[in-house]
Amino acid sequence: MTTPELPAIVEQPDTEEELERPYHLILLDDDSHTYQYVIRMLGAIFGYSREKALGIASVVDSQGQAILMTGPKDECLLKQEQIHAYGPDPLMEISQGSMSAVIEPAT
Length: 107
Prior knowledge:
Helix content is about 40%, strand content about 15%.
């Protein structure tokens, strides 16, 4: 008599571990960029309306930072690079470069 062959055991990855954790892209306030610059930059990079960009600029000015987006780390990194490459504010002589943005895990 032959023993029946057992089916192969296939490890199933934990689906919760596979889901990528979301990240926040956070714009930081500084004193070398105007509201006009922030509004123009957010429109160019994110496609935000003037009203939404003005709201974000107000939050950055009053609270020192604002969350621009929440999403996969790769997308946040791409948008962060675009912010850092946007260049100085032509309306302010003291502006030497782009604004700063950081990425943090969303809680």
